[in-house]
Known about the structure:
178 residues
Amino acid sequence: MSRVGKQPISIPQGVEVEQKGDVVIVKGQKGQLEEKIHPDMKIVIKDGVLTVERPDDNRFNRALHGLTRSLIYNMVVGLTEGFQKALEIVGVGYRAELKGRSLVLLLGYSHPIYFVPPEDITIEVPAPTKIIVKGVSKQLVGQVAAKIRSFRPPEPYKGKGVRYEGEHVRRKAGKVNV
């Protein structure tokens, strides 16, 4: 039995889960999320607790069991609490600012980089060197944060660039004169 897949998901107040064919729809205070799941996975909702069941112990179904449970759990958590990812900018003259909905990044290039996030994502810039990406979809929050990081990933010699908060950048030694 999958350790992740067999764990029940408690559905909090204000969150509604329904299944229409292969699609699971979760509605909450912060909106609505949909996810297409494999037809072999069966979702059982009893007394505010959701469990995912699989037809047999086939290797493929065992893998899908934990995946399906994690996807549904992330939708429930996203619609109640939301997800966020923090990025920090390291480098002299590197900074970020918000103009309307778009994020303006100055990362040492000859031009500023303008990034407009998707509709479901909100971006906050509490300090010129800190960016916070928030949203209800864990996958979309991670994807947007990775896209912002890709504009100038941290380099190994001075550590300059955009990195996740708390990310350790492995540093290399520079030139050595012999």
